[in-house]
UniProtKB/TrEMBL annotation:
Keywords per UniProt: ATP-binding, DNA damage, DNA repair, DNA-binding, Helicase, Hydrolase, Isomerase, Nucleotide-binding
One Pfam family it belongs to: DEAD_assoc
Positions of transmembrane segments: none
Protein name: ATP-dependent helicase
PROSITE patterns: HELICASE_ATP_BIND_1, HELICASE_CTER
């Protein structure tokens, strides 16, 4: 059987689609809409034929109705014939509870309109089952099952072991997975992919329909959606209609010259530009990249323009209460708000009514995310997608300009789908054991039908079985007891405890509980840190809290012990944990652009020629093109322009005894994290220098030390791609990052139960338990499955070891050359990286003054070259 993944290229005429729909649906549709939307023209007939279908299209393009139209038509036909049974025909899975509420409203309204046309009650029931659903509502579903069940990935996992509810799922015909792009790259998606295979065991084959915003690679996302059968992907049709909407995207800078503007000029110009844009539009949605920036923007708009922004402005982010967020979403839908500022919480397709402008304050770090955010504007089919990128530094300007080019040219960056997550399958093996006794190879075959486990080995699977079956007796001393029984001779497995179903239902899920840690100097309380920031710290790192610098000593449970270090530069900036990482594909596109520009400078092209090239290549206005030209010209005359074929290592003298070794490695923070740790580890091994500090951004990283013995190039050249994984395993072994991620994996693998017999374990107690467990499993085996998974998560999901290996391979083969330079002033491309190291201890004005002072020194140095030219 050859056919697997196919793109649908035939656009059906309206009349052809009407022929396959029930007459009542046809009548309703003609009254409601003028014509079918492009996603519907490609997909409705495919779904009617019960073909697995992935629909990738912008928000507001009609893809949700594409999924439901054939299904509602079928249910209406069954109702008219008196054949509609009390069972669930369709399961709709959404990553957000709020989105579930949207669909309930958006489904019930059309059904009511169709019933009005029919002149009778058709009896088609829709119900939501999530963690918020009350016990009484769940009981009602057992008496009168919903024909369309709306749920989340976690709730689906729970109902699969609920005997009474599972009976309603024995003949599911369709499963719709919404926002596939938000699920595929993380462990929620991994969990769901196996749940779908378990559902198929209950119901038999069903049609899978995936709805996604802009995402790539579509073929891999399609395989994720449909899973595998007999080692090959199931058939899937792909509908890709990305360019059906008109774009109006621009990069804007609030000042004529970023590098010469004072902090006051930047601040005032930014908020004047924001106010002007907001006032020109009915409703504006502003995306920042951090929760703190969201609150700051709302505060400054209210303070600067008190008469314009009072009750008509709001903040929306994950740290706010659910009630606050729901209230704000309702106000948006009613058109009561002029502007809403959010971090990432409104990226997904919650119905928030009419938005006519989206502002992206700072780089969204990926083309797909940029399109997803901008796609919240112009929600109706024929509305224009209108977005404005506002940039405040030269690196952001280049980044956003390249993303804008990618958006217009439909170059979507790739997502990574996690593979062989050993913590997630613990929950599914436990669930399968609860369902009934079965052969281990039968369970493995089911799990391998998931795209995420297609390559899972028997050895990996059996290591999880042995842990679950309590083979490691010493873990019982740490209150980790066997969950299943497993006979290695017969290879049969089954549940062990009578309360297994309760333990499973109250502990499954993949989203880790996060908390804040108390920072202390001895017994003196200093303040609080979030866990995302802590996991980036290693012993000796300097960070800022409350405007003062401290050295990180160690963390125990939820307490961090520090030592005050006045007048010391931080090694880890305070914004680090909240920042989104730059996508690798976008980074490479920026590097290619750098190379093209360097070639033009080497050819001694005129300014007019180069600016014209920038203007045409990047779709930017004259001011932006001129700023980019000046930035690159300074770097070219002062040093060298790093690019996709040249990695520049800059030895900068620095201040006092400190020397900075700057790697101009524009690969995104995930690769730079892996690369910098590997080099620092090798330095400590070669020169026995344990005090190497790392600071990194998407554009590169620097290493610094008080010690004169820092054999950086030797350490860098000793790195081999084939040994990188083992080296990084050793490098992260004693770090906070591994301790915290091990806790997350221990929770997912049910080593630590967050809920047991009605009692919930606090995050602090979970972390204390995890640290003790980590020591225990290391003594049992360095290959213990949950320890291996914690390492895999750090290296593959948090960092990007695969692309780091690729970079090292290209260096080894000579495809990427290493160029070493020495500077007494940081080169223009290094200025932002060095300045960010000072950001937390300097006021913003002082930081900008530092950058301007350095910039003047650079201009003075390159002046002779300009005169000669």
């Amino acid at each position: 059987m050859l056919v697997t993944i196919q793109y649908l290229t035939k656009e059906y005429a309206d009349e052809s689609i009407f022929e396959v729909l029930d007459s009542l649906i046809v009548k309703w549709f003609k009254q409601k809409f003028k014509t079918f939307a492009p996603p519907q023209k490609y997909s409705v007939i495919s779904i009617h034929k019960k073909e697995n279908t992935l629909i990738s299209a912008p928000t507001g393009s009609g893809k949700t109705l594409s999924a439901f139209l054939s299904i509602i038509s079928e249910l209406v036909s069954l109702s008219k014939q008196g054949k509609l049974e009390d069972k669930t025909y369709c399961v709709y899975i959404s990553p957000l509870r709020a989105l579930s509420r949207d669909i309930e409203v958006n489904l019930k309204n059309p059904l009511e309109e169709i019933e009005k046309l029919a002149g009778k009650d058709l009896g088609i029931r829709v119900a939501v089952r999530t963690g918020d659903t009350t016990t009484s509502e769940r009981q009602k579903m057992l008496v009168k099952p919903p024909h369309i069940l709306i749920t989340t990935p976690e709730s689906l996992g729970i109902v699969l072991v609920a005997p009474k509810f599972k009976k309603l799922l024995t003949d599911v015909q369709w499963v719709i997975i919404d926002e596939v792009h938000a699920l595929a790259p993380n462990k929620r998606g991994v969990h769901l992919s196996v749940s779908l295979e378990r559902l198929q065991n209950v119901s038999g084959p069903f049609t899978r329909i995936g709805l996604s915003a802009t995402v790539a690679p579509l073929e891999e996302v399609a395989k994720f959606l449909v899973g595998f059968q007999n080692g090959s992907p199931r058939d899937c049709k792909i509908v890709d209609v990305q360019l059906i909407k008109e774009f109006d995207l621009k990069v804007l800078c609030p000042v004529p010259s970023i590098i010469n503007a004072t902090q006051e000029e930047l601040h005032n110009s930014l908020y004047k530009l924001l106010d002007d844009l907001i006032q020109e539009h009915k409703t504006t949605l502003i995306f920042t990249n951090t929760r703190s920036a969201t609150e700051r923007v709302v505060h400054h708009l209210k303070t600067k323009y008190p008469k314009k922004y009072l009750e008509n402005i709001g903040a929306h982010h994950s740290s706010l209460s659910r009630e606050h967020r729901l209230d704000l979403e309702n106000k948006l839908r009613k058109g009561e708000l002029k502007v809403v500022v959010c971090s990432t919480s409104l990226e997904l397709g919650i119905d928030i009514g009419y938005i006519d402008l989206v502002i992206l304050l700072g780089s969204p770090k990926s083309t797909a995310r940029a399109l997803q955010r901008c796609g919240r504007s112009g929600h109706k089919l024929h509305d224009k997608i209108k977005g404005r990128f506002i940039v405040l530094d030269r690196d952001d300007l280049v980044e956003c300009a390249v993303m804008l080019k990618n958006a217009y040219e439909n170059k979507i960056d790739n997502i990574d789908i996690p593979q062989n997550c050993l913590d997630v399958i613990v929950q599914h093996i436990y669930g399968l054991a609860i369902e009934n006794k079965q052969h281990a190879e039968t369970a493995l075959d089911l799990i391998r039908r998931s795209y995420c486990y297609k390559d899972l080995s028997w050895e990996q699977f059996e290591s999880v079985l042995k842990y679950l079956a309590g083979e490691y007796v010493s873990l019982e001393q740490r209150s980790v007891y066997a969950k299943i029984w497993y006979d290695p001779v017969t290879k049969m497995l089954g549940r062990r405890s009578k309360i297994a179903r309760v333990i499973y239902s109250t502990n499954i899920g993949t989203i880790p509980e996060e908390s804040y840690l108390e920072v202390k100097f001895g017994e003196e309380r200093i303040g609080m840190l979030d866990e995302g920031f802590l996991e980036r710290l290693k012993k000796g790192d300097i960070f800022v809290l409350g405007g003062k610098t401290y050295r990180f000593n160690f963390a125990r449970g939820m307490t961090v012990q520090v030592t005050p270090m006045p007048h010391t530069l931080p090694t880890v900036p305070s914004w680090f944990s909240e920042m989104l990482p730059l996508n690798f594909d976008v980074a490479i596109e920026i590097q290619k652009f750098r190379r093209k520009l360097e070639e033009l400078f080497k050819e001694k092209r005129s300014k007019a020629e180069i600016v014209k090239f920038i203007h045409e290549y990047l779709y930017v206005d004259e001011n932006s093109a001129n700023s980019i030209y000046e930035y690159f010209r300074e770097q070219f005359l002062f040093a060298e322009i790093p690019n996709d074929k040249k990695l520049v290592v800059e030895f900068y003298k620095g201040f006092g005894e400190k020397k900075f070794i700057i790697f101009h490695s524009l690969y995104g923070r995930r690769v730079n994290d892996a690369l910098s740790r590997a080099i620092a580890y090798e330095i400590s091994r070669i020169s026995r220098n344990k005090n190497v500090a790392i600071a990194l951004t998407d554009n590169g990283f620097y290493l610094t030390s008080e010690s004169q013995k820092m054999q950086v190039l030797r350490a860098f050249q000793s790195l081999k791609p084939e040994h990188l994984r083992e080296l990084l395993k050793r490098a992260i072994d004693q770090t906070e990052i591994l301790k915290r991620r091990f806790r997350h994996c221990a929770m997912r693998s049910l080593m630590i139960l967050r809920s047991y017999k009605g009692h919930r374990k606090s995050v602090g107690r979970q972390q204390m338990g995890a640290q003790i467990l980590l020591s225990s499993v290391k003594r049992i085996s360095d290959k213990f499955p949950i320890l291996e998974e914690a390492r895999r998560e750090v290296l593959e999901d948090l960092m990007d070891i695969k692309r780091t290996e690729k970079v090292l391979s290209e260096i080894k083969s000579g495809k990427i050359k290493i160029h070493v330079i020495a500077t007494e002033i940081p080169s223009p491309f290094a200025l932002n990286l060095i300045a960010r190291g000072y950001l937390d201890i300097l006021k913003m004005e002082d930081k900008l003054e530092f950058v301007r002072r350095m910039h003047k020194a650079i201009l003075k140095q390159i002046e002779p070259y300009e005169i000669a030219a």
